[in-house]
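Here is an idea for our session: we take a single protein and study its fold together. To get us started, please write out a protein record for me. Once you have written the record down, we can walk along the chain together.
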Amino acid sequence: MQHVSWSRSANIYEVNVRQYTPEGTLNAFAAHLPRLQQMGVDILWLMPIHPIGKLKRKGKLGSYYAVSDYKAINPEFGKLKDFKALVQQAHELGMKVIIDWVANHTAWDHEWVKQHPEWYLKNDKGQIQSYRYDNGTEVEDWTDVVGLDYSQKPLWTAMIQAMQYWVKETDIDGFRCDVAHLLPLKFWQQARAKLDAQKPMFMLAESDDAQLHDAAFDMTYDWALQDVLKKIAKGQADVRDLKDYLASAANALPTDGYRMTFTANHDTNSWHNHDAGHFGDAFAAMAVIAATFPGMPLVYGGQESGLNKMLQFFEKDTIDWQNFKHEKLYANLLAMKKKHPALHNGALGAPVEVFDAENHHILAFRRQKGIDVVSVQVNMSGQNQSFNLHGKPRKLGAWEFQIQTS
């Protein structure tokens, strides 16, 4: 991909509008924009802002990913003018805005179900049925949505036109595309070309499929890194596993592809566990690795305040903002990424050079781009550790880290 220049040193911040404030509105979230700018946030990714289907809805409020109208705003969040104002304010503060796009399925009461039933997947009896998702372990029945059939080429046109609407009407900067690997790559390539003709886009795929970088997406998910970090935090892995990860990751992408690195996102938080459950006292150390390894670091809204609960997905469950205890940590990490070319995204950044610390609990690495050097040492255990680095004895406390730059 020809990445937009502003993405080269960028980070990304996920916004769950419903849970972000007591009001759960776009206008209430907008009050946080100056704070996020001060923290150093570059790209705001808003979870789906569209109306949610009422037919077969889950819970009281339903899933953000059960879209009933691709060209409207969820009335619980506000109006179109509120979203336009939010985008404009973000742009004035130097931030970009991308929105979550759910192209694989719609709510049961989306108008297309009646107007274009031929656009939907059918069961053996020729009936539209709820979407069945194979997660690799089992087949999940997503009872509140119905799947779209991308063998129907008129659907491609209608979906791309809906995406173009948001670029034209609100001046957004790109899309995060839900379960992108379930759609034909040629669809995404066509969509990307037509969207870029309007305005150069930034596109994030919810997938780790490297093929999606082929003329379609700038960035995919780094699930593998999060899996290793969770295991290390629970004592089930160590630095040797991180070295194995780095070796495989180096060959997994095109030279200039971006991976999104993270300790949490809305899925992991709502369905698996919160930060305290996944990482405990190791959280800051893991955040450092996610921000200094190759890739674009994600902050899930609330993490800067130590999000210590699983936010409900179908109900109102406001984030407890507490005292922003991790805000300074993130501000320092995001500023460092922006300042140091060695940490930039894609081919412009530097590879990771891991050093032998003679201790499998100590991660010591360097990233160097010309004269710019970032060196990191992290104790990947809950005990004090002694180690040798470049012939010198050193010590780090439990989950302690040190970063040197030049």
User: Anything to note?
Assistant: The CA atoms of residues 212 and 389 lie 39 Å apart. The longest strand covers residues 139-147. The chain is about 30% helix and 20% strand.
